[in-house]
Design brief:
The structure is a homodimer. Chain A is α/β, with parallel strands linked by helices. The first copy, chain A, folds into 3 domains: 85 residues, Winged helix-like DNA-binding domain superfamily/Winged helix DNA-binding domain (Arc Repressor Mutant, subunit A, Orthogonal Bundle); 94 residues, D-Maltodextrin-Binding Protein, domain 2 (3-Layer(aba) Sandwich); 103 residues, Periplasmic binding protein-like II (D-Maltodextrin-Binding Protein, domain 2). Chain A has 11 helices and 11 strands. In chain A, strands 3, 4, 5, 6, 7, 8, 9, 10 and 11 form a 9-stranded mixed β-sheet that branches. A two-stranded antiparallel ribbon of chain A has the order 1-2. In chain A, helix 1 packs across helix 2. The interface between A and B is medium-sized, with 33 and 33 residues. Chain A binds a DNA duplex through helix 3.
Chain lengths: 294, 294
DNA sequence: ACCTGCTTATAGTTAAAAGCTATAGATATA
DNA sequence: TATATCTATAGCTTTTAACTATAAGCAGGT
């Protein structure tokens, strides 16, 4: 007993005619008569009484009709659900994200929500490279925005943009008057930096080291937002990605370009190479790639 | 998308293997691989990730699995219901019945209930021939136990048994001493008879008329039970079918055979010729035909 | 490093099923 | 009585679901 035959049966019962039902179903009348006969044999039930002029449901046919209608509707509902599912999966997208990407990423996501309003997002604020890699490999995230290039065969990483770091100082700070600074200008300032294991620390420290300098670290924080607040209070200066300052403009904080060839980074979009992505996620990925951060 | 393919899919997902699933499903592994591939193409979804060693569900496959499992279970439940329905229809049997058949018929039905305990019965106590015929033709009853032969092409009637009428008298009545009576013995007694339109009246009156007699009608009743009560109170005598007296023995009432070739009747089982009967009803009909009333 | 065994995919074929057209047969209606 | 309409039957074609045989990929043992 297949759903198709049940649909045939329902149509015949509704039309009280094989020939009309056949027209509606876009099959020939003999094919339909045959199908119903096979259904009757299969069920060992006589569903219709027929004479050469007209047909009508038997008692048992009436009862069967109700049941068949019910299961066919359930099946059609299932098909609708599946069609939706084909687009959006289970309706969840999990994204790994570095703090400094949040601001522009949310602009992309806002646009995406217009097309897929019901999708639910989960953000995974991943920090060290190990965590980034394992969260991708274990499927915890569909993709990750990261500043770390992936050295793993199973992971595809796609550079999104290249950005310089900038110095963030309070508006009344002496350096604020300059149009650009050098690392030597910074080295003697009270410096705010990410803690070990948090993003940007490595980039910043390496740049100093390559110029054989060392910053005067007075504060170690976890979140860039905290660093900003500290700068705002005049506790010191810090170095932030350009995009962070652009998308998160803070009153009284000035961003200054730094003349160091080492102080810049690339932001990547990374995901498991053969992970199957729903059309919804693919569209999001393409929007992310197309988005002009600057 | 057919239920069959969904079942295939579920088995593969459960077994995490095409070859094991193929064994369970009693089809070859290539057939199964093919079927799943077709399902995937049909749905435009990748359900499994495969390498040559093992397979696993994709994210979307997991979600689809849940839905598929649900609809397949619903379908299997539907099939069970239908199988039951094939036996018992909608679980109702409507029977037309004359009063004098109730007593033996309920013995048959009691036995029938052992096999089909959940079937619900409705009894239609039909009286005149017109009503008997119309209730059969209009499908109000599945079948009728009647003492009237049916003269209708669409109705099949099957004689069940032939029975004499008997005289019912109170035990102290003068006639009670006899072993059999003649109509002339009865003609001068206070007589209890069914009202116009109720069963037995016609049979009884015709018998008297054929012997050119006429009973001394003093009471006209509707239900045979009422007649019995009256006899018990010594109000008069009445004529009842043998089966009624046999199955409904009343204390102090004696049933006497009547020596009249006219005073007997045939009880029939009648039903619409081409009405489709469930196996349950067919079994009941056959039990009725086999039941030995005497 | 190279078999062995297990698993899935592909190719080619067969069998079953679902469809078609043409037409017979039956019966209401004109 | 002829006509139109409806279902059933017969015979054929197309599509689909199976099958067998075999290739190809990989893990594990030798």
């Amino acid at each position: 007993m297949e759903i198709r035959k049940l649909k045939y049966f329902i149509t015949v019962a509704d039309e009280q005619s094989f020939s009309k039902a056949a027209q509606i179903l876009h099959i020939s009348q003999p094919s339909l008569s045959n199908a119903i006969m096979k259904l009757e044999n299969d069920l060992k039930m006589e569903l219709f009484k027929r004479d050469t002029r007209s047909i009508y449901l038997t008692d048992i046919g009436e009862v069967f009709y109700q049941r068949a209608l019910h299961i066919v509707r359930q099946f059609e509902h299932f098909q609708l659900e599946v069609a939706e599912m084909a687009e959006t999966g289970d309706g969840h997208i999990n994204i790994g994200i570095i703090e400094s990407a949040k601001f522009w990423l949310f602009k992309v996501i806002k646009a995406f929500k217009n097309t897929y309003p019901d999708i639910h997002f989960q953000f995974n604020e991943v920090l060290g490279q190990k965590e980034v890699i394992s969260s991708i490999l274990e499927g915890d995230v569909h993709f990750t925005i990261t500043n770390q290039p992936m050295h793993n065969q199973l992971i595809t990483s796609h550079p999104l943009y290249h950005e310089p770091f900038m110095l963030a100082v309070y508006e009344t700070h002496p350096l604020a008057r300059k149009t650009s600074v050098e690392l030597t200008d910074i080295a003697n300032q009270a410096f705010i930096i990410s803690r070990e294991g948090f993003q940007t620390r490595g980039d910043v420290l390496q740049a100093f080291m390559k110029e054989q300098l060392y910053p005067k670290i007075e504060y170690e924080i976890e979140r860039l937002e905290t660093a900003c607040k500290m700068v705002e209070e005049g506790l010191g200066v810090t170095i932030l990605p350009k995009s962070y300052l652009d998308y998160n403009p803070t009153p009284h904080i000035i961003g200054l370009p730094i003349t160091s060839i080492f102080l810049n980074r690339t932001v990547y979009l990374a995901y498991l190479k053969d992970r199957s992505m729903t059309p919804a996620i693919q569209k999001l990925l393409s929007k992310i790639r197309q988005f002009e951060v600057f």
